[in-house]
Design goal:
By secondary structure, the protein is mainly beta. The chain contains 3 helices and 22 strands. Strands 14, 15, 16, 17, 18 and 22 form a 6-stranded antiparallel beta sheet that branches. A 4-stranded antiparallel beta sheet has the order 1-21-20-19. The two termini are 29 Å apart. Bound molecules: beta-D-mannopyranose (BMA).
């Protein structure tokens, strides 16, 4: 049986649920706000560029999309030049009484990560672009570690393709102490690229991270999800990486769409009963949710692991 149980009414959101004109609704960050689940998701417009929308839910399964987009490419000096081609793949972290939003900012200069924040999901304030070009998939830990903010991200270079790094910051703006901590594994389901998915979840046994891995085939790439467990005090230390994927494209809405064979996560919400709600984009076209037991995900990292590097 699969470790992630798909919600039987997937997909939970399609473009028909969006009150403005979009071609897709997919990769979404999700967090609890008071008793509600707040979701910020990516949509392609009909020109192929992306914007971010907002949806909310009482139960984490049934979401209502807001009447207007939440974030569109900025007109603000300093951001405008780097968001010209769109904003993508939002992740949400609740820390210090506010929600941090990290997202990909696309422009003629490449893809960078931008940081914004909101207290109440009505007003949003951009803080800073926090990487140079050729970075994606940046997740911020929900607590300071040894007095510093911590993040995982995925720079790309020819010498070291698409791997996961960690960095730290005293103020969310200036980041350093960067270190490579996890690489794609040759001839494995994640051999081409890996990247952080949902912001790490704190558990007694370590920080649980859901990441995506990509395998190239004659029929294009396949995006799957896997798990890694990081040391609580020193998250640069990976305790174990699950050898098996936890989710792969199987349902029709994951196998075909805007980009076929994709399950891609930007958010997961831990629940008091020890389960994790994982949200993923299906084929870059719709939003899906599934549930897994946090203990099962950790056991996979510990008892059936592959090397991190
Ligand atoms: C990645 C990003 C994601 C997307 C995935 C699959 O490179 O563009 O937003 O979901 O590819 O197409």
């Amino acid at each position: 049986m699969s470790i992630v149980k798909r919600y039987q009414k997937n997909p939970i959101l399609t473009k028909n649920d969006v009150p403005y004109s979009v071609a897709t609704i997919h990769n979404a960050g999700v967090a609890k706000y008071n008793s509600k689940y707040m979701m910020i998701f990516r949509s392609h417009l009909h020109n192929g560029r992306s914007i971010l929308g907002l949806a909310e839910s009482e139960d984490g399964f049934n979401f209502k999309v807001s009447a207007k987009p939440f974030m569109v490419p900025s007109e603000k000096a300093g951001f405008k030049e780097y968001e010209e081609y769109g904003v993508e793949d939002p992740r949400l972290t609740f820390i210090d009484g506010e929600y941090l939003i990290t997202y990909s900012a696309y422009s003629r200069h490449g893809v960078r990560i931008s940081l914004a924040k909101t207290k109440d999901f009505s007003k949003v304030e951009r803080i800073s672009l926090i990487t140079e070009a050729d970075y994606r998939n940046l997740v911020i830990f929900p607590e300071k570690i040894n007095g510093l903010y911590a993040r995982l991200d995925r720079p790309h270079s020819e010498i070291n393709p698409w791997s996961i790094w960690i960095s730290y910051s005293p103020d969310l703006k200036y980041w350093g102490e960067s270190k490579l901590i996890m690489k794609p594994l040759q001839y494995h389901w994640d051999e081409m690229k890996i990247g952080p998915g949902a912001p790490p979840v704190k558990t007694e046994r370590g920080w649980l991270s859901i990441y995506h891995g990509v395998f190239p085939t004659m029929d294009g790439c396949v995006y799957r999800l896997g798990t890694a467990l990081h040391d609580l005090q020193d998250p640069a230390k990976i305790i174990g990486v699950g050898d098996d994927w936890i989710l792969q494209p199987e349902e029709p809405y994951e196998l075909t769409g805007y980009v076929h064979n994709v399950v891609f996560t930007c958010g997961a919400v831990p629940e008091e009963d020890g389960t994790l709600k994982i949200y993923w984009g299906g084929a870059d076209t719709v939003i899906c949710v599934g549930t897994a037991k946090i203990d099962d995900l950790i056991d996979l990292c510990l008892h059936n692991s592959r090397p991190a590097l």
